[in-house]
Amino acid sequence: MAVVEIKKKGNIFVVTLNDPVTGNAINAEALSAHRQVLAELEAVSENSAVVVTSSDTKSWCVGLDFEWIEGQSAEEFENTFKELEEIFGRWALLALPTVACVTGHCMAGGAIFASVMDFRIMRSDRGWFAFTEIDVKIPLSPILYGMADLLPNKQTVRDLLLTGRRIGGEDAQKLGVVDESHLLEQLLPRAMEIAEELAQKDLKTYSAMKQLLKQKLLEQIKLELNE
Predict the structure, then answer these.
(1) Among 74, 125, 127, 195, which is most exposed with the fewest C-beta within 10 angstroms?
(2) Residue 87 maps to which CATH number?
(3) φ, ψ dihedrals at 116, nearest 5°
(4) DSSP class of residue 50?
(5) What is the bridge-based pairing of β-strands 4-9 and 12-17?
(6) What does the pLDDT average to over 18-39?
(7) How do strand 105-107 and strand 129-130 relate by DSSP bridges?
(8) pLDDT, tens digit (0-9, with 9 covering 90-100), for 30-57
């Protein structure tokens, strides 16, 4: 069974993070699975939308798999960051509307992943959203910071990045980190409702508007590619 699965329900692509043993940690297998999913989504030309959820009711994505990275050399770890930038950048600029359905813990690289989605809804009664890089002593690259900075509340971005503070779904909504928070049983149905509405939008127009909203990140990515 793939650690990232994709199924189509009507005009909605449901992408499920499916590695509950690790909390959907990001490792080589996960990055490879994301590439396969993204290749399928990037080929879509009809009006559609994407919901990214998790089969784990405890965690949505807890970030990098520490067992995977702890034995990496400095060069290997630098390449890992570049892979993250590539995968998250493709998610950020995907032409299709994207909705993160955050079922539980959304930490470190997982919080970056959620930040690049167009919309975010989060479980209200369990799970933390946090940028924990400050505590694990792994500073963000400029591009990964640019992805965190896609969140609309800049003061909150600053506070979370510099403190590593963990916030639950209700506080995340109050601080503008997520658009809505709901109990678990309401979460996926609500995400599907949002996605259904977004799937009615003209894809070319939506993509153009998204690129305007994320223009600074797009320029950062292009600059790095040209270096």
Answers:
(1) 74
(2) 3.90.226.10
(3) -85, -10
(4) E
(5) antiparallel
(6) 97
(7) parallel
(8) 999 999 999 999 999 999 999 999 999 9
Burial of 162 from C-beta contacts in 10 A (0-12 / 13-18 / 19+): exposed
Distances (CA, A) of 101 to 49, 53, 136, 151, 210: 13, 5, 26, 16, 19
Q: What is the CA radius of gyration of the chain?
A: 16
Three-state DSSP at 2 gives coil
Q: DSSP per residue over 164-195, as a string?
A: ---B-HHHHHHTTSSSEEE-HHHHHHHHHHHH
Tokens coding 218: 């797009």
CA geometry: angle at 84 spanning 102 and 50, to 5°?
Answer: 40
pLDDT at 227: 56
The b-or-e profile of 116-137 (16+ CB within 10 A means b, else e) is: bbbbbbbbbebbbbbbbbbeee
pLDDT of residue 111 exceeding 60: yes
Place of tokens 């992943």: 113
pTM over 0.85, yes/no = yes
Task: Kindly state the tokens that stand for 201.
Answer: 């939008």
Number of domains in the chain: 1
Given a cut of 60, is residue 159 above it in pLDDT? yes
Q: What is the rounded average pLDDT for all residues in the chain? A: 95
- Tally of CA atoms within 13 A in the half-sphere of 47 that contains its CB: 10
pLDDT at position 1: 78
pLDDT exceeds cutoff 70 at 84: yes
